[in-house]
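A quick aside before the break. I want you to see a complete sequence-to-structure record at least once, exactly as it would be stored in a machine-readable document. Don't worry about memorizing anything.
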Amino acid sequence: MKYFVILPILLLLQGCVYFNEDGISTKRYRDCTEYYDAQGKYHCECDENLIDYDQIDDKLLKGNE
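That is the input. The structure line, written in tokens, reads:
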């Protein structure tokens, strides 16, 4: 039921809310900081999305059970 309320709000705020490849965010592109640490391991730290697509799938599946 929450999604029927959230979806119209997101559609009304299309200029402020963007659908990127990982989820729904207030920024068109995710600001990621990519770097290698002293041991040579790669790290990628990105800003949080408002909603990630995998969270939506999990909640929809739990709601149907």
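Two observations worth writing down. Residues 14 and 26 are 9 Å apart (CA to CA). The two ends are 14 Å apart (CA to CA). We'll return to this after the break.
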